[in-house]
Amino acid sequence: MRPRVSWMTANDDTILEYLREKEMALPPGTLHFNLEREGFEIGYSTVRRRIKLLESAGLVENATDEGSYYALTEKGYAYLAGDLDANDLEDRDSS
After folding, report:
1. Can you give the pTM of this predicted structure?
2. b/e per residue, 61-94, with b = 16+ CB within 10 A?
3. CB 28 within 8 A of CB 68
4. pLDDT-based confidence at 94, cuts 50/70/90?
5. What's the rounded mean pLDDT across residues 8-23?
6. How far apart are CA 52 and CA 93, in angstroms?
7. How many Å apart are CA 87 and CA 6, to the nearest integer?
8. What is the C-alpha separation between 58 and 45, in angstroms, rounded?
9. pLDDT of 22-71, one tens digit each?
């Protein structure tokens, strides 16, 4: 079972699972567009906000030097596999 911590939402799981399924780095706008095309009701501002929180937790990373293309990290894959201690997510930098 995946760790569930207080700051995470179902949208976080949706974003992470989509990045894992597609195995690519995507900017927030493209991620939002494709999630909507597949029937997920997540607003663009929500995607942008949540991706920054996921990045601060180490679950995704900016995969480019220029622009904002986000991809799963090893920690993100571990989270999705249920192999991550919830304390590793609760102790994220919240700033």
Report:
1. 0.89
2. beeeeeebbbbbbebbebbbeeebeeebbeebee
3. yes
4. very low
5. 95
6. 11
7. 11
8. 20
9. 999 999 999 999 999 999 999 999 999 999 999 999 999 999 877 799 99
Whether 16 contacts 79, CB under 8 Å: yes
pLDDT of residue 4: 76
Please give the Cα distance from 79 to 40 (Å, whole number).
Answer: 21
Phi, psi for residue 4 in degrees, rounded to 5: -125, 125
Q: DSSP readout, 51-90?
A: HHHHHHTTSEEE-SSSS--EEE-HHHHHHHHT-S-HHHHH
- Cα dist. 51→7, 24, 41, 90 in Å? 13, 15, 16, 16
d(CA 76, CA 27): 17
Q: Which residue type is seen at 53? A: L
